[in-house]
Automatic annotation (TrEMBL):
Entries under Pfam families matching the protein: KOW, ribosomal_L24
Top-level taxon of origin: Bacteria
Domain KOW residues, every copy: 2-29
Subunit structure: Part of the 50S ribosomal subunit.
Any one of the GO CC terms: ribosome
Keywords of this entry: Ribonucleoprotein, Ribosomal protein, RNA-binding, rRNA-binding
Protein name in the entry: Large ribosomal subunit protein uL24
Coiled-coil residue spans: none
NCBIfam families: rplX_bact (TIGR01079)
Function: One of two assembly initiator proteins, it binds directly to the 5'-end of the 23S rRNA, where it nucleates assembly of the 50S subunit.
CDD domains linked: KOW_RPL26
Amino acid sequence: MHVKSGDTVVIISGKDKGKKGKVLKVFPKANRVIVEGVNMLTKHKKAQGPTQQGGIIHQEGPIHVSKVMYYCDKDKNGVRIGHKFLENGNKVRVCKKCGEVLDK
């Protein structure tokens, strides 16, 4: 997975192409991510007793990870991600365009 929870990504294909959002949840086994405000689904919820009200709920659905690209604030664009080892032996993600270290 090239993106993690909390990353800002840009959608590169599909009906929401060009939208930016924060990754809310990652499903590595299914290669899918949920991005804030992208792939909005409409769910019809039935009332659960007298306290909970039924109605139509809008929520984000998962999209394939190949449709998202990490958004670099420095470049103001979607960028590819590489990996690099630091002097202390830690493996970190880096922006392939500007070389900025993404994992602090």
